[in-house]
Amino acid sequence: MSPKSALGKAFxxxxxxxxxxxxxxxxxxxxxxxxDLTSLMRITVETTxxxxxxxxxxxxTTPEDIKQWNAASDDWHTTAATxxxxxxxxxxxxxxxxxxxxxxxxAGTYTKIVPQAxxxxxxxxxxxxxxxxxxxxxxxxxxxxxxxxxxxVEQQQQGWQAILENFARHVEKKR
Length: 175
Prior knowledge:
By secondary structure, the protein is α+β, with helices and mostly antiparallel strands. It has four helices and ten strands.
């Protein structure tokens, strides 16, 4: 049983030596104890983009645009991107340090698409949701994703927020 599958089942929170624990009871009577609850956490970042919804949606879902905004800092960039924007379709972005010292592929599968409103996807054993809503000063873009266990939650939040701010600047600069 994974911590994620324990959600929605009976569970008890407790502490042991100041460490938060989760005791999960599986449907088949199995019991599991989890001490790493990061995988149960969801992180949300958001920004408002001063542009029409159609332009915001297009920039978020077009590979050439993605390569322009998809980086958390100036010393990284996205060298390739693919998008098959349909439920069951795949996406991939190759993110690399500009000095060539490291890189990784961010890839997954779209699980739900509501044009100009919602994108849901899975990547590895994690999921994310991107919401696009009209706001008085443009379009609010909100990304909610499952935290990972490799990097601290704060670092993940800061990185995804930086990417989203780059996205907003890219769209607004195109206008």
